[in-house]
Amino acid sequence: MISILFGGAVAMVLTLIGTRWAIRWLAKRGYGQEIRADGPTSHHIKRGTPTMGGTVFIVATIVGYFAAKLFTMTPPSASAILVLFLFAGMGAVGFLDDFIKIFRQRSLGLRSKAKLAGQTFVAVVFAVLALQFPDERGQRPASPFISFIRDIGWLELPAILVIIWILLLIAGMSNGVNLVDGLDGLATGASMMVFGAYTLICIWQFNQSCATANGVGAKCYEVRDPHDLAVVAACLTGALFGFLWWNASPAKIFMGDTGSLSLGGALAGMAVMTRTELLVLLLGGLFVIVTASVILQVGYFKATKGKRLFRMAPLHHHFEMLGWEQVNIVIRFWIIQGLCVVIGLGVFYAEWVTG
Fold first, then answer.
1. Which of 19, 196, 200, 303 is buried deepest, with most CB atoms within 10 A?
2. How distant is the alpha carbon of residue 96 from its chain centre?
3. Does a structural domain hold residue 307?
């Protein structure tokens, strides 16, 4: 527990201090956000706001984790390192996208095929490595089974299909967070809630692990490194808590694709490692809802030959077009995300109680 608290505290302090320095450094060099010409007109005043702020909480999370390991003099685990690799790797793809936007002074960065190729490469490397590194009990970071709250025994997949499944999960969550990142503080606050939930889930799984005496029995969790995953989740939560200070409305800095892609990747990585691959769709319900709004908008537009289901997609822009204040949208969407987290945690605990 000490390493969990220590890592989260270090990451939070680093983002609180580091983000302020990053704002000055980025603003001095003119590394500001470009705004979509077809977006809400209220966003035009945000042009030039420093972006790529995700770099700060990526660094803070990694430093916080290794500081916790150094503080407790314990070695890092394969599961934690792999989640951090996915977190940083997806962030690197997003960084390239953000840098091209800034360098070429346009709202679009990497071409869609190049962006997809980068995401696919990082995700496939993660998936392949996650099926390696068995511990003394033969437990690997990832499982060949599709999971809900634990492995679903009759849904075992061959290795190639496991890799494809993990790839789809990573692509879905990373792009989901990317779509939600459209209003000041929205994606930061929503992601912080989910990683906070994963901190609690990992602590519970550690206390009821099949690898310990306390977890012996039918209800124990077959997760390779739950305590170390709790440290990673706590570092992510703390880092986002500190970043929200500067990212809340009116935002002094944006996370950019650097941040949104990395957070989505880390979220999917936590789901894979904790055997909660389907539960994450409930815990991250806001990301699913917003992504669904884009899919419905595109599908309806094509089916009706030009008609729109929403005034604008993603969903939060629809409410902007209706005249809602951005702060009201963010708070209400946070409430929705909070309800999703509460329900997800309730389902997780109910499964334990009912067996």
1. 19
2. 18
3. no
Backbone angles phi, psi at 38, to 5 degrees: -95, 5
In the numeric block, which tokens belong to residue 35? 């705004």
Collapsing DSSP to helix, strand or coil, 33 comes out as: coil
97 is in an annotated binding site: no
Q: Is residue 8 part of a domain?
A: yes
Residue 151, annotated ligand binder? no
Q: Is residue 65 part of a domain?
A: yes
Is 46 exposed, middle or buried, given 0-12, 13-18 or 19+ CB atoms closer than 10 A? middle
Residue 164, class by beta-carbon neighbours within 10 Å (0-12 exposed, 13-18 middle, 19+ buried)? middle
**Counting beta carbons within 10 angstroms of the beta carbon of residue 109, is it exposed (0 to 12), middle (13 to 18) or buried (19 or more)?**
buried
CB atoms within 10 A of CB 82: 24
Put simply, whether the predicted model's pTM sits higher than 0.85 gets the answer yes
Q: Alpha-carbon distance 220 to 215, whole Å?
A: 5
Strand intervals (E) in the chain: 145-147, 151-156
Query: At how many degrees (to 10) do helices 54-72 and 78-104 cross?
Result: 160
90 occurs within a structural domain: yes
Q: Which helix (H) or strand (E) holds 91?
A: helix 78-104
The model's pLDDT over 172-203, given as tens digits with 9 standing for 90+, comes to 999 999 999 989 999 999 999 999 999 999 99
Q: How far apart are CA 348 and CA 355, in angstroms?
A: 11
Q: Over the Cα atoms of the chain, what is R_g?
A: 20
Q: How many domains does the chain have?
A: 1
> Domain of 120?
2-282
Helices (H), 142-185: 159-180
**Alpha-carbon gap, residue 220 to 94, rounded angstroms:** 38
Q: How far is CA 146 from CA 220, 283, 325, in A?
A: 18, 17, 41
Low-confidence ranges of the chain (pLDDT < 50): 43-44
Render pLDDT for 255-310 as a digit per residue (tens, 0 to 9): 999 999 999 999 999 999 999 999 999 999 999 999 999 999 999 988 888 888 88
Q: How many CB atoms lie within 10 A of CB 267?
A: 30
